[in-house]
Amino acid sequence: xxxxxxxxxxxxxxxxxxxxxxxxDQTVERAFQDVNVVDESNLNDVMLTVxxxxxxxxxxxxxxKGSPGRxxxxxxxxxxxxxxxxxxxxxxxxxxxxxxxxATNEDRVQLADALIRTNEWTKAKxxxxxxxxxxxxxxxxxxxxxxxxxxxxxKKSDSFYEIAVGLTTAPAGVMNNWGYSKLTRGDYSEAExxxxxxxxxxxxxxxxxNNLVLARGAQRNYSMPVIPMTQTERAQLLHTMxxxxxxxxxxxxxxxLLRDAIATHPQHFDEAVRSLKALDAA
Length: 282
Fold this sequence. Notes:
The chain is mostly helical. Among the domains are: 37-103; 119-165, no CATH class. The protein contains 14 helices and no strands. Helix 9 (172-185) packs parallel to helix 11. The longest helix has 48 residues, at 2-49. 34% of the residues are buried. Mean pLDDT is 88; it is low at 6-12, 14-22 and 28-38.
């Protein structure tokens, strides 16, 4: 009888071991799944930041086909298309994202950005208007300012630029945009101030340096601004100043600036040479 009573115990032991083995297999499988999720998340981040944009497009195109309906992968594809300057495709991709369950206000901001890149200003404004005013981000207000500029709504534009500057720790780029807005309106002194602020915050921003020279030239101030610049940049800025002088009708001044540009450039400055020859011929 003692032998018979051992059988249920043995069966129970086998079942317990089987259950433990099963539980262990499931745990290992879940662990591998977790690792795969982490690895995929890291790879997605890499593709969105440091990878070649077209490689990222190819990666996310494959990923969305393999896992249809995943909004994170669709976002990755849309962002990669914009990074690759395939803006028309980017608009389509962001439109798809904003129509999916789980779409956010940030997705709508990104759609508006893509629409602006394709010069679809009216659609961009409609998209921004669909976002609640309580959603306040730097990117949202930067785009709002650009749309207001396009519509020549200058008071709105200034207000949006001011808010955007306060919402970022790196406002140089938006100050340059704000300055260019002032430049197009003919407010040259204010444009000059804003370009100067942009350069003070980021002295590598050559676009702001070039715009600063344009603003000074528009005021017939042909002296070079005291800002950090390389020898090549100085030559290029002298060339820009010369073109501004031509626009003002100050041809002789322009010739002198072009000669300075040619002499300053560490290499042959073909563009300035052509401009000087054109002025001499005229």
